[in-house]
Amino acid sequence: MKTYAITIIFAFCASLLAAQNSYSPKALAKNNRTERMSMHSDSLETALKLLDEAIAIDPSLVNAYGNKADILESLKCSEEALQTILDAEQYVDKRNPYYYLGKDNILLKNGRNGEASEAYT
Known about the structure:
Elements: H1 2-20, H2 25-37, H3 44-57, H4 62-74, H5 78-88, H6 97-109, H7 113-119
Helix pairs in contact: 1-4, 1-6, 2-3, 3-4, 4-5, 5-6, 6-7
């Protein structure tokens, strides 16, 4: 439940940042469709496909990476979720603490406690 709450906060903050940036409307539409789909286990594979398409259209859409990592976590694909978060890092506003909370949580789930501590510094 903690992971889900942190991811929701991450997604919300990333959404606010997305509103301030000029992301591709096509990428945003695909990403936004997945937010409802991620609540239904029978739609997760479709949601992942849409998120991959959104990221391909606009790689700087950090919210899509967060949504994808959340779905991968729910599918017990922690390593892939971690890689997704790491892929997003180059586009993250370094002042956004929610990204680092999400990254830290995924690092901890992958047993990478030392790296998790560094995520806060």
